[in-house]
């Protein structure tokens, strides 16, 4: 085994030199054993933040993260196993629709998701707004649920990619989260360890996204797609818009409500469009989409017939939740205080700032600023306008669902800063800006 001289490796990366696979493996293994200290790993992460990683360094680091824990394997089985990962946005409830829809279509979706942090929401928090729903089931139960229903939805367990959990905890407090190399290694390692064969990445772009400009989002998407393919997955990414929230609802139970409406064949058109586009990509990377138009039309049919909703109800029941939610949305938690934010003037909506709306929802209690914060599943916003829409003074624009009058009043103030009305609005960006595949796949 290569002897580890942590300071020497850190200095080499700091000065722009290359690290061999053996050196990186020895460094990460020593960290997991406790022989490289948190402060040395933090320094290495900062060196990587500034210097980046070559493709082979990135692949080695990702393999080290995968090898730090258990690896699932869904290769045996009749249907390809696929998953979708979003880089995070506001009102992004796509996973709740996509997993049962793809399962109904005939793919398997062993989905591992995260919690909301900062201004963006998390799938686990949304699922847990359904009374009784458990996202902490054991891996054996997870596998059995995928075998039975074609999908299962759980959180990260300590058994899978434990190195990622430890690195992320350091990155979170050392200013090293926003690195294309580190984000790519973190996301792709978890997806490879999930044992899937196809991965779709939803890389959000805009004010409410990690990546605010298209070039940066494209770079992240390309890096992740190439990394995933180099590790044996079929992968594809869509760059999707995140200037304004996706759909209308922001907040956990409210987003479940909207996801169920989409699974009933209704709901807001942008949510349906983005979900269908990501599902078509999933069918492509799953190797079952020779004709994308036909796949899209089949998927639409599964929404309109309600059969994807039946699958979601069975999933809810299998994971301990109340499946009657699929028929009766009033069984979801609801907030005691509802107020309206109204337009202060006639004009066009020129800004509906997703980041500020996300932050306002966190302040209401829908999200958390630190991992230990409790969330309130009932609170959030019902945004009833879009960028470019013409509105009249006094028109209700957003429903504020709050726990108290005080928090409702604070949210109304924050919406005042997030929503602008003017005389002319620039056209909103297209919902799907680009598709990114590797150079070997058209
Ligand atoms: N999400 C992840 O899982 N990892 C990152 O590094 C960033 C976002």
Hetero groups bound? uracil
Structural class: alpha/beta
Average pLDDT, to the nearest integer?
95
Could you give a short account of the major beta sheet? Answer: 4 strands, mixed
Estimate what percentage of residues fall within beta strands: 15-25%
Question: What share of the residues lie within helices?
Answer: 40-55%
Helix and strand string, N-terminal first?
HHHHEHEHHEHHEHEEHHHHEEHEEEHEE
Sheet with the most strands: spatial strand order = 1-4-5-13
Query: Could you name the ranges where pLDDT drops below 50 across 5 or more consecutive residues?
Result: none
Instruction: Output the number of helix runs.
Output: 16
Cα Rg? 22 Å
């Amino acid at each position: 085994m290569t002897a580890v001289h942590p300071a020497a490796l850190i200095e080499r990366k700091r000065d722009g030199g290359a690290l061999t696979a053996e050196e990186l493996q020895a460094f990460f293994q020593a960290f997991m054993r406790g022989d490289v200290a948190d402060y040395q790993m933090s320094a290495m992460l900062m060196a990587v933040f500034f210097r980046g990683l070559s493709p082979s360094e990135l692949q080695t680091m990702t393999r080290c993260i995968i090898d730090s824990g258990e690896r699932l394997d869904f290769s045996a089985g009749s249907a390809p196993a696929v998953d979708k990962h979003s880089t995070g946005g506001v009102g992004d409830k796509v996973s709740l629709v996509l997993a049962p829809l793809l399962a109904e279509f005939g793919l398997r979706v062993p989905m591992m998701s995260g919690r909301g942090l900062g201004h963006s929401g998390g799938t686990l928090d949304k699922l847990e707004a359904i009374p009784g729903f458990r996202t902490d089931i054991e891996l054996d139960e997870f596998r059995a649920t995928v075998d039975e229903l074609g999908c299962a939805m759980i959180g990260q367990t300590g058994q899978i990619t434990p190195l990622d959990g430890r690195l992320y905890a350091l990155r979170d407090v050392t200013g090293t989260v926003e690195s294309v190399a580190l984000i790519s290694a973190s996301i792709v390692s978890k997806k490879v360890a999930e044992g899937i064969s196809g991965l779709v990445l939803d890389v959000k772009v805009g004010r409410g996204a990690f990546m605010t400009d298209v070039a940066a989002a494209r770079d992240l998407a390309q890096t992740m797609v190439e990394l995933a393919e180099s590790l044996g997955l079929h992968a594809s990414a869509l760059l999707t818009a995140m200037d304004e929230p996706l759909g209308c609802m922001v907040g956990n139970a409210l987003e479940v409500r909207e996801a169920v409406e989409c699974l009933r064949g209704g709901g807001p058109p942008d949510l349906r469009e983005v979900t269908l586009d990501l599902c078509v990509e999933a069918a492509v990377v799953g190797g079952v989409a020779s004709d994308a138009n036909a796949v899209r039309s089949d998927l639409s049919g599964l929404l309109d017939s309600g059969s994807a909703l039946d699958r979601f109800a069975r999933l809810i029941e299998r994971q301990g939740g109340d499946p009657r939610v699929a028929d009766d949305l009033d069984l979801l938690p609801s907030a005691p205080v509802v107020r309206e934010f109204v337009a202060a003037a006639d004009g066009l909506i020129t800004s509906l700032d997703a980041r500020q709306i996300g932050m306002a929802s966190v302040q209401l209690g829908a999200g958390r600023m630190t991992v230990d914060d409790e969330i309130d599943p009932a609170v959030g916003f019902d945004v009833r306008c879009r960028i470019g829409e013409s509105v009249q003074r006094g028109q209700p624009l957003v429903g504020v669902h709050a726990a108290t009058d005080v928090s409702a009043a604070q949210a109304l103030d924050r919406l005042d800063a997030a929503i602008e009305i003017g005389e002319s609005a620039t056209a909103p960006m297209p919902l799907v800006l680009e598709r990114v595949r590797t150079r070997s796949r058209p």
